Give the backbone structure.
Amino acid sequence: MQTAGDKRLSIVWIVLSGVTLVSWWIGFDHHTGPLRLNAPITFGVLSLAALKSRIIIQEFMEARRAPRLLRRITDAWLLLLLLSLLGIYSIGMGFHL
């Protein structure tokens, strides 16, 4: 018999697996030619990675039950990390956000 916590973790695991499949599908290149940079795909995959990271931090590292300040700090850290990665990618591509 599953407890409420086990059921919640099972649902979270299914959601994380689904997001992984979506990010793989978005990033999958159907061409066999040379590798091409694609900003919308990169932004989408990085955003999905940030979403997955937030879910993992909230559910599996139990930040969901942590004090509000700690939850906000982890969210701010993830946002800063995402914006930094997108900024570095944008500068490397030769355009600015």
About this structure: The chain has a mean pLDDT of 87.
